[in-house]
Amino acid sequence: MVNSTLNELIETESREQPFPAAAAMVDHVRTVYGSSVRAVVFYGSCLRMGTDEDLMLDLYVLVGSLKQSLKHPLSAAMGTVLPPNIYYHECDFEGRTIRAKVAVMAFGAFVRGTANTTFASAIWARFAQPAAIVYASDDRARDATKEALARAVNSLISKTLPLMTGPFSTRDLWVKALRSTYEAELRPEPPTKADELIDANPERFDAVGTAALAEMGADPFSSRFPKPMAKWVWRLRSIWGRLLNVLRLIKAAFTFKGGLNYAVWKLERHRGEKIELTDRERAYPLWTGLRLLFSQSQDHNR
Length: 302
Fold this sequence. Notes:
alpha+beta, Beta Polymerase, domain 2
């Protein structure tokens, strides 16, 4: 990976083939969301580990028309105003059940979400990390998705640089970047999560970070001083990002079938303990989800 450009690195990474169970789920969601699907992007822990054992696949389904794919005007409208819409999917594969969290988003909104001009971090932060384009309707869709993934890296790195003091390593930069984005969302991630992600594939993060810095003409070995304004911008981004998370959770109460079970499963994995819900808590999934989310956020702030 040495001396490769950012686009070359993302091109190689994005063409990683899904393992058979993941490929089966990709076929399933393509059938569900129909001919409007322009690309499917695979990311997250299952991609990193190459398995879905005791895990849930993470897919972004990028569509040309939300109305056509979702077949529900209200869901399409909500997905336009506050993307993406999140759904839980299951399918059978070789005698077992495969599970996936599927985000459905308009293709154009995804592309815009990776741009440096997008204030909220959710898309460019998530897709600056490894991702594979496991389906594209044509070369044009694949190229546009690949360019968006590279743009996500540039967006994350350029927004993190003003927070850095120098000299620093590419690892320092990525740790700062990922921790900053976790704080900008109500995500139940432990403090060590950024280190774990980077240390699981250090060559990738070093190569991609080095290529992005080279394109920006930034020297990590020179003396740098944090820009006070940048810290305030990230604080505002954190407020905005958390508000969006709350709004998306409220929206999920109407669009995410099985959403509460997914939220409990996710929190159990992060906490390492079983969460038992009462019948009353299950009767009010929105308020239960909000309580669990804020409880987890408070745990990490202590």
